[in-house]
Amino acid sequence: MSADRSPGLDFLRADIPIYTLTFARQIPPQELLARMGADPDSVALRDETSLHDEYGDTLLDADEPVVTTGVDGAWTWAWEQGGMHGLDERILSAVSQGTEAVVLHYNEKPMYWFKYAADGDILVDFHTLGPLEPTGPAPAQLDEAMRPLGLVPGRPVPLDSVLPLAENAFGLRVTPTRDGEERWSANLLPLSG
Fold this sequence. Notes:
The protein is α+β, with helices and mostly antiparallel strands and 193 residues long. The chain contains 5 helices and 8 strands; from the N terminus they run βαβαββαβββααβ. The longest helix is centred in the C-terminal third of the chain and has 9 residues, at 162-170. The model is unreliable at 1-6 (pLDDT under 50).
């Protein structure tokens, strides 16, 4: 599949200034929220209207981000519209215990940050600021999927290659919410120092 045609994460190619998506394989939305450190009193099924009514201007809070979940195929995802909790090593380690997890972060620099973890270990970690320098105990694990997209160690990272990597290597996708559809959501508790 080419970098310009990937149906799984298409809506993320729109003008969304910042987001963090955390994906976990084969765990239910409520468990993903718990592993990410959601305030247990805030976990509920909400549609877009009730989400906006309840959280209003705090939807984009970086310290206590609001996350919405969904399930697409084998993966459950949690979308932080303003936060970066999913990138925190402690959160990602907890999310990936007994399973696999992928985190995609995008911001206006523009930059992407990609992390892949399994069983509590972050195996591959890279960002698009500067030449590609994957870190982690298995930085070459995704080479076969990365190289055809121009993701080659020591070379500049093509921004349009990160979403296709997530789609092609893991089959990740996010189906946007339909009008009136309820999804599990919550606010995450602040990260401790």
